[in-house]
Amino acid sequence: MIFGLYDDETDLLSAVRTAKEKHLEIMDVFTPFPVHGLDPILGLKESRLHIVGFIFGMIGTITAFGFMTWALASDWPIIYGGKPYWPVPSFIPVTFELTVLFASIGMVVTFYTVCGMGPGVSNPTLHDRITDDKFCVAFQLSEGEEKGEEKNKYEEYFESTGATLVETKTI
Amino acid sequence: MSAITSPIREPLVKGNKNYHQITEDICAPTERAPSVAWVLAFMVSVGFLALFAFTVIWTIWIGIGSWNLNRTIGWGWDITNFVWWVGIGHAGTLISAILLLFRQKWRTGVNRAAEAMTIFAVMCAGQFPLIHMGRIWLAFFVFPYPNTRGPLWVNFNSPLLWDVFAISTYFTVSLLFWYTGLVPDFATVRDRAKGIRKKLYNVLSFGWTGSAKHWQRWESLSLVLAGLATPLVLSVHTIVSFDFATSVIPGWHTTIFPPYFVAGAIFSGFAMVQTLMLMVRKVLKLQDYITIGHIESMNKVILLTGTIVGVAYLTELFIAWYSGYVYEQFAFYNRALGPYWWAYFAMMTCNLVSPQIFWFRNMRRNVFVTFVMSIFVNIGMWFERFVIIATTLARDYLPSSWSYYVPSWVEVGIFLGSLGLFFTLFLIFVRVAPVVAIAEIKSILKSNGDQYVEQNKKYIEEKQFSGQQV
């Protein structure tokens, strides 16, 4: 894998644009903070995480409302304070809370799962300064490319786009 | 220039920072040996935490009889403390969620510490209903689980049960929101650390790499969690207010409670954020990130919510009179002029009168005044809950049951001890985690850093000078 580091997000954005023009296939881009305007240039599709949130939220709504209906109206009907067996307005708070709870937990678990992250997981990182102040573009090199022409192509690209550091690393 | 912010706006990051300098400044407190001030504060906090443990064990061992509650006054300091702590726990999620949706960039300086404060305050709050139950080993009865008594289900009509769901959901969602924000910053600390610290932060950072796709998902997650947390914040204190409002006690049975409690919660929460941030920025030397501008913004929120709370107090009085309902009228007469008049007076002075000082700009921007005011508001909001709870109960329908309540040393010990629990957790937090959201500060640097704001100003002035449209 070959990667180059840039000092500023504007350099990074123009470098990614150049790579797209030259039809170099970027493996990934690593940044210390979310760089706005990067996703469309990289061609990343919008995240579908919010759909996951909606689905989990609906599961929460149905679970809460369904359970309370079953417990109070069917399994053991009791009259509390003269209210009907199926007191729908009383169910609103718990239904709302469980909707939020299910949606949040569901989304967070999905987020960590699809990103391949979790407690104790250690993913290889290319450079220690990526989480600090450097912006990184990485290309995948096949085994034949490690020493050949291809590598020069990338080095030339990094030089022309103003990368401050270019390295090869196998991970 | 990546983004242009109006030059009238005050810069949010001062001291001509670059990205690396931000990392250095904010990671420094987690990397150096603890200061003498920290060690002393920690020792005092742990001392109070020990008092908390002692008085709670005493309560559980002897029973609720060790408190001075009686048949008339069944809720005293315990529920007062519960509502007080939950209220404090509202500012963090408000700052991080509602201000994220409103695109208020000043939130980036204070959101991390405020969210931590929220989580610790809710943890303190959660202790009180539990120990108030008396038989804490039966606390699981509040959950609807299949039991051998029928199964007999919990009463879903009860606001006390709604509270169980509201507080536990609020705690869980706040924790998830806070931790998701922390993960990239833990990765920053990890990549700077060596040896055992690297291993620790490697576990804490969940294997974060900073990939563009991960950032995109992270932003999407933060936005939706903020969207969910916003109504959640409002719902939690609404439900806490239902504990009172759905009862038939004069003085409690009012429809104004939900908005009034939510405003009060934000008010007290921001006051506690001020108390903590003023100390944090000084001790950790973060004045460039938590600027006077940040403090002023929070003081504006305190002024607004304090005035809303004040209007609610006066509305209550007016409606009590206007209703023509003698029991309601008596409840409010008793609050203001009864045996607990001093609590009502403290509440009115601290919550309604004193925040009005923030109409003056130089008062809003004065660190000392802000600190004193934040303590005042904390005290005032504690008295508000005491007035609503104990004062109202002390004079009920039957004059023969009228009573007066003074806490026992155990109740005082539990309250002081809960402060110990809160500050112990907060002090550990400032040593372990970056107190300011590093990644978020970096993302606003180009638009709100002082050198960039200055550049914008020059750029606009030049254009105007040459008669061009800006």
Describe the protein in words:
The complex is a heterodimer of chains A (171) and B (470). Chain A is α+β, with helices and mostly antiparallel strands and 171 residues long. Chain A has two domains: 2-46 and 133-168, no CATH class; 49-115, no CATH class. Chain A is built from five helices and four strands. Chain A has a four-stranded antiparallel β-sheet, covered by helices on one side. In chain A, helix 3 packs antiparallel against helix 4. The longest helix of chain A has 27 residues, at 49-75. The mean pLDDT of chain A is 87. Chain B is mostly helical. Chain B has 17 helices and no strands. Chain B has helices at 19-31, 36-62, 77-88, 91-101, 107-132, 159-192, 195-204, 212-245, 257-283, 292-323, 326-337, 341-353, 361-364, 367-394, 409-432, 438-448, 450-465. Chain B is globular.
